[in-house]
Amino acid sequence: MANNEESRGLKSLFDWFANRRKSGSTSLERQERDIADGLWHKCSKCGVLAYTKDLKANQMVCVECGHHNRVDSDERIRQLIDHNTWKPLDEHLRPTDPLEFRDRKLYSDRLRETQDKIGLIDAVKTGLGQINGLPIALGVMDFRFMGGSMGSVVGEKLTRMIEQATQRRYPVVIVCASGGARMQEGMLSLMQMAKISAALQRHKDARLLYIPVLTNPTTGGVTASFAMLGDITLAEPKATIGFAGRRVIEQTLREKLPDNFQTAEDLLQHGFVDDIVPRTQLKNILARLIALHQPVLTTPPMVLWETMSLTSTAAE
């Protein structure tokens, strides 16, 4: 009888501890819910918790491990362009569904949902502005919009921006972040590779500077075209850069690829990238490169002739 009472007492004691544990976890969950969303950010690489405001002040680069978190196009423009100098271009261009493409849902519905969700019309923002007082034409791809895929609007906006830069004699910088061509637009998306490349060739013929900045990830048709046509090619640390995916290449070659394959560091070693620049230094590095490649103003022939005439008269 005594043993039954003791076992009953132990069970109730265990139940009491179990209930305490449950209530403790519940209160912990309640505390976590009470913390405002977006107040803290956990680094996906080192796991360190950082105050989001401090992380943004460091341009979304982890202070502990240097991991470059992905940033959207608006944030990238704020990081690079001088205050109150940004003038957007071709904001009215909107994507259509010429092929009436459908996978699990209609492409037109997918476009509408993505536009409503993130507030962008398509996967790139283009415009004119200044970097440390120097004029520039800037295009920024946004990976949030269908993986930064390159459709007709992306190609058209970048081409028009490059043509504006050629006309104004501005350098061009394109910040790349893309999974490649947009499959829902088929051949029309592949045509953008040639169209942008042709505009860049005319820009080059005018002896003007073009700098692509490769961020994580830059793959597919973007890598196969304008991302690799720069006069100077820069990349962010640890960015994934390539054409086909790692798994596809391994299955095709039937070989195990190195761990650092398709990283910015690997491409730098093999000469595909000219330099790896941390995001916190990118604006100053771009400004320095643009300043070094400013067009040289030549003296008009008439002034030279007048100078020669005055010199010869003075000699007499």
Provide a quick synopsis of the model:
The protein is of the alpha/beta class and 316 residues long. It has eleven helices and nine strands. The chain folds into three domains: 1-31; 35-69, no CATH class; 72-292, 2-enoyl-CoA Hydratase, Chain A, domain 1 (Alpha-Beta Complex), CATH 3.90.226.
Structure description:
- This protein is an alpha/beta fold and 316 residues long.
- It folds into 3 domains: 1-31; 35-69, no CATH class; 72-292, 2-enoyl-CoA Hydratase, Chain A, domain 1 (Alpha-Beta Complex), CATH 3.90.226.10.
- Helix content is 45%, strand content 14%.
- It contains 11 helices and 9 strands.
- The protein has helices at 2-34, 52-57, 73-80, 107-118, 152-168, 186-205, 220-223, 246-253, 264-269, 279-292, 301-315; strands at 40-42, 49-51, 87-88, 124-131, 134-141, 172-178, 210-218, 234-235, 275-276.
- The strands form 2 sheets. Strands 3-4-5-6-7-8-9 form a 7-stranded mixed beta sheet, with helices on both faces.
- Strand 6, helix 6 and strand 7 form a beta-alpha-beta unit.
- Helix 5 (152-168) packs parallel to helix 6 (186-205).
- The protein is globular.
- Mean pLDDT is 87; it is low at 301-316.
The largest pleated sheet is described as:
7 strands, mixed
CATH class of the largest domain, named Alpha Beta
Structural class: alpha/beta
- Enter the CATH topology name of the largest domain: 2-enoyl-CoA Hydratase, Chain A, domain 1
Number of strands: 9
Overall structural domain count:
3
> How large is the radius of gyration?
28 Å
Write the element-wise H/E pattern from the N-terminal end onward.
Answer: HEEHHEHEEHEHEHEHHEHH
Helix content: 40-55%
What is the CATH architecture term of the largest domain? Alpha-Beta Complex
